[in-house]
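Input record (one chain):
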Amino acid sequence: MGKMRVRRAIRVLEKEGVLSFSIKALQKAQKRQQRNSVQRKIKLNFLVKEADVLEADWTARPYSPHKNKATEPYTVNWVMSPPGKGEGGGHQNIFRFINHLIKQGYTCRAYLYSGRDFQDKKEAQTVFEKAHPGSSLTFEWLKGPMKPADAVFATGWETAYPVFNDPGTAQKFYFVQDFEPYFHPVGTEYVLSENTYFFNFFGITAGNWLAHKLNKEYGMRTDHYDFGADKKLYRFENSQPRKNIFFYARPVTTRRGFELGIMTLDLFHKQNPDYEIILAGWDVSDYHLPFPYKNLKTLKLEQLSDIYNQCAAGLVISLTNMSLMPLELLAAGTIPVVNDGLNNTEVSNNPYIKYAHPSPASLAQALTETVRRKDLPKYARLASESVKGVNWETSVAKFEEILRSELHG
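The corresponding structure, as predicted from the sequence alone:
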């Protein structure tokens, strides 16, 4: 077969010349490319299903809450993305609030939703039960109308679409942990996530910055709970001088400002070469970093308190909503150095959080000023005592209070 093609090509070349031969060869190559491209059509790939976006016409038929004056005990549906193999911070917080409601006698159901992931629900159940043994929460993939409930929560921008489209009479809420448009470059996903704040759900937010922003800029009805710190996980155990610096180094999460943090630590190391820099949150061994460091990669929550107790200060960069980490560091007597901004200061005005402008020079100076305090061991103990009254029990109680107030009508 190959020899026949060669002889045919030679005849065309002899009869029609090089130019004609070249044109025909290019035409054939183009046809082959077109045939192959049909097989490689690129599909739109979002966290949300396109059909749900198209159905959720919030401009023509806005959602109007059903005020049913539900009676206790309440039933609450939760729509969430599948938890990863290890429970992330977002899911950890969702499950913290769900488990509180279950303990108070509520019936809670978890519906999994994603335009991309199709995790086996057994895997989600396993991840959850490993972290929360004894809980009665069960998981189902969302494949149509949800079972009747008094309330339903969207827990991320993509889940707000199926919640908007659900035909049930449950009052619709939005559990907002961050300003999610900031997770994307300005484009389609930015707009799709931003649009969900116009869905007229009642928003219960993590901290006051989000509640204020969503109410002022999008007209959402909102209320908030304050951040807590788990004293069983984070404890003050070292009153001696500390010679380490901690940085939550997570290059795959852009809002954590990895590059800004590395430049900050480069300056800090030049000024304070006797301090060891500890990086955790991701394996950064593939990165060329300009200073010596200890790469702890990813750690279990139970390991963090021991690490924090080795550190005089922790660099925490939060470019969207404030991280949970500053309060956790304080509980262990580690002074958090955090980028200044309303997204952080409106969430916590704890006087032991050292805020600095989000520039390498300012953040490095703040770290240097912290570690050079002559009273640092005593200051660390006072920092830990400053969060004694900050706990998740207060936060979940406030959350339930808001929910009950809305359901009572």
